[in-house]
Amino acid sequence: MASEIVPAPAKRSRVWFETAWPWLKRIVPWLLVLLPAILLNRLIHEHKVNIPFLDDWMFVHMDAKLAEGTLRWQDFFMVQMEHRMAFVRGVIMLFHHFLPGNYTGQMWLSWVLLALTLVNVGILLRKTTGVPFRVWWPLLALASVALFSPVHYRIVLWAMMFQVICPAFFLSLAMVLLLARWPLWIRFVGAVLCAQCATQCFATGILVWVLMIPMILWSGAIPKTQSRYIFLIAWIGVFLVTMGLYFHDLKNETDPQFSYKQGEEQTMERNFSSFFKNPGKGLEFVVRFLGCHLGRGWSVSVMDASLLLGGLSLGLIVVFSLLWLKKFRDETLRERLLPWLLFGGYSVGAAVLTAVGRSWASQSGDNAIHARYTIHAVPLTISLVVLVWMISREIRHRRPQWTKVTVQTVTAGAYMLVVIQAVSWTFGERMMAVWESSRLRGAANTLFFNTVYNTEGDIAGNRDLARKANELNLLNPPMLKNSRLDNFSLMPQLLNQNTAFFRSCLVHSVEGESKAVVEGYACLPNRVRVADAVIFTYKDKSDGHWEIFHVCQVMGMPLYLVDLMARDLQFVHTPPGSLEQEGLAGFRGSFSLQQLPPGEHKIMAWALDYKNQRVYPISGYFEVDTVKKRVKKLGSDPKAVNLQWFIEKGKGNPNWEQLK
Fold it and tell me: Using CA atoms, how far apart are residues 111 and 168, in angstroms rounded to an integer?
């Protein structure tokens, strides 16, 4: 019989595939593990904004003391509510010294800490699974998806928030050090340093001391009983000394604006009494806290989704802990499961401590799902993935007849987790853009704190500390030194009226003072985002430049809701006007007529692009008479404010000078 003839192209493809397959089997797993880290890296690069926010301003006091020569070691250990943050303060002061004005460096530190935590997870997997990388790489890939999810947007895009990543990183590093084959004293010193650093980052870092005790006793890291107990006694001794120093005179020492409006008071007594007076509320807080990173992005309430997923996670870790106790005499299984039970136990402990410290601050308990808490629950998710895989392998080994059901159950669970994470990822990516837009507006307002009489729309703005930071050269770019519009690049591109429009300007008398109320909407070209600031100017009669006299902000829901909900909100009671315009990009501000020189002035608005330091003219022009206290509408033709020559110049009209 004649042999089958294989076409040459098919034969070449098969040869190529057979040659490449061994390499693909090695490369693809690593690509899947590293892909989430790469994607988050690119998202941080795209959405980072170099401006302090909220608690970031707290450290300006230390910079001022350093400049005056009065900074003391005690300043590093000062208490913010229940946190001592010497490690965090030290790192931030190093950034301020070597990279003054660079706050995005701290955001990149957050990414590095997440990457190092993933490395620690990989080392723990290698040490506890007993199988090669080609078997357990899907676990590391799922861990990478959870760690690098954009749902942590408020952590990776907020400079000082690297502090909340530190406890889980230092806990995993302490476990890795304990399981290493180095001399015992090196492992002890390394683990103690990890615990100390975690403690001086965030109050939940105290859990590292507690969680390492079972690791010392039952992980098999220290085989000799005498050495193990010496290690344990020394560990507990350092722990007790540290706690004595930590809780000595533990009262808030930071400004009320950085401490839930607390003064210099003992906070722990109030926290514990509030928690134990209503334990049911505290339990709900704990459960929602554990599910807050998975409950975002769904159509259901975040409170409900977090309660469901957090309850499921808590139930599973409890069941696995009971199984561990039941199988305690199985030394191999006990040692393999223990690190993951403790790593997940960090999340539970962090939830309890946070409930004690914060459940009083909200009647509804919605602060349990605060976006800056999402990273604390990730160790539990990672641990559950590993524990389910390990226990399923154990079941298949001991009950071969259950292999099919076990594989199907684990596979279904993995698919469900991937779907949940995918929803969280898409939501987090959207929120990174929203957070960027908000921080850009804060950065834009900060530019004018030294020059403009009033800026509207500050979110957690801090004029006094911002000015102090500017004096210390800690802002980049620095504040404007004058209020001329030509501090920015003036773009000769009149924004389309569907994108931006200065709609109205009306004069009202408020408590005997004449004020103008302005309204409109403002997006940047192509609706990349709403304007970073709406700048109002008048023409200076001395030399014809545009002078800034007022700044306000777009105050609307996130712009991405246009794509998400615009069609579904047709024929629904929504704000007047277009959803894309007034609904999501509307601005409303007011200014005193005293902000303008006496007389008649033609005013117009500009949309600021802070990233590129550009301003775009907005249609809609008015003439304000500050003496007669009246406003005249001039229409939308740039000729009304002698702007047509500028627009034509931008279009390339060779006769633009004739229009000037």
Answer: 14
Compute the chain's Rg from CA coordinates.
30
The pLDDT of residue 459 is: 80
Per-residue HEC secondary structure of 480-548 comes to CCCCEHHHCEECCCCCCCCCEEEEEEEEEEECCEEEEEEEEEEECHHHCCECCEEEEEEECCCCCCEEE
Residue 484 or residue 258, greater confidence: 484
Strand partners for 614: 489, 609
Helix H, strand E, coil C: the string for 544-583 is CCEEEEEEECECCCCCCHHHHHCHHHCCCCCCCCCHHHHH
**Exposure letters 195-228 (e unless 16+ CB within 10 A, then b):** bbbbbbbbbbbbbbbebbeebbeebebbeeeeeb
What number of other Cβ atoms are within 10 A of residue 485's Cβ?
A: 16
Identify whether the C-beta of residue 289 lies closer than 8 Å to the C-beta of residue 310: yes
Of the pLDDT bands very low, low, confident and very high (cuts 50, 70, 90), residue 367 is confident
Cis before 477 (ω within 30): yes
Of 52, 296, 39, nearest to 157 by C-alpha is 52
CA atoms of 249 and 134, how far apart (whole Å): 52
Q: Which of 12-21, 305-314, 402-411, 591-600 has the lowest mean pLDDT?
A: 12-21
By mean pLDDT, which of 251-260, 325-334, 445-454 is the weakest? 251-260
Query: Nearest to residue 378, comparing CAs of 344, 352, 351, 353?
Result: 344
Residue 4: left (phi > 0), alpha (psi -120 to 50), or beta? beta
Rounded to 10 deg, the angle between the 60-68 and 463-471 helix axes is 40
Per-residue pLDDT tens digits for 266-297: 555 555 666 667 778 889 999 999 999 999 98
On whether the CB atoms of residues 277 and 360 are closer than 8 A, the answer is: no
CB atoms within 10 A of CB 87: 20
Q: Are 185 and 357 spatial neighbours (Cβ–Cβ below 8 Å)?
A: no
Q: Which residues of 30-63 are buried (b: 16+ CB within 10 A; e: fewer)?
A: eebbbebbebbbebbeebbbbbbbbbbbbbbbbb
> CB of 361 within 8 A of CB of 270?
no
Contact present, 296 and 424 (Cβ < 8 Å) = yes
> Has residue 1 got a pLDDT over 60?
no
Q: What is the pTM of this model?
A: 0.91
Contact 403, 392 (CB under 8 A): no
- For the packed helices 331-358 and 302-326, what is the interaxial angle rounded to 10 degrees? 140
CA–CA distance, 422 with 416 (Å, rounded to integer):
10
Question: Which residues on neighbouring strands pair with residue 505, listed in sequence order?
Answer: 518
Can you tell me the distance from the alpha carbon of 534 to that of 605, in angstroms, rounded to the nearest whole number? 6
Give the residue-averaged pLDDT of 182-208: 96
DSSP 3-state of 474: coil
pLDDT digits (tens, 9 = 90+) for 224-279: 889 999 999 999 999 999 999 998 888 877 777 776 656 555 555 555 666 667 77
Backbone angles phi and psi of 591, in degrees to 5: -140, 150
Residue 587: strand pairing partners: 520, 554
Residue 442: the pLDDT is 92
Supply the DSSP symbol for 641: G
Looking at residue 402, its pLDDT comes to: 79
> DSSP for 389-421?
HHHHHHHHHH-GGGHHHHHHHHHHHHHHHHHHH
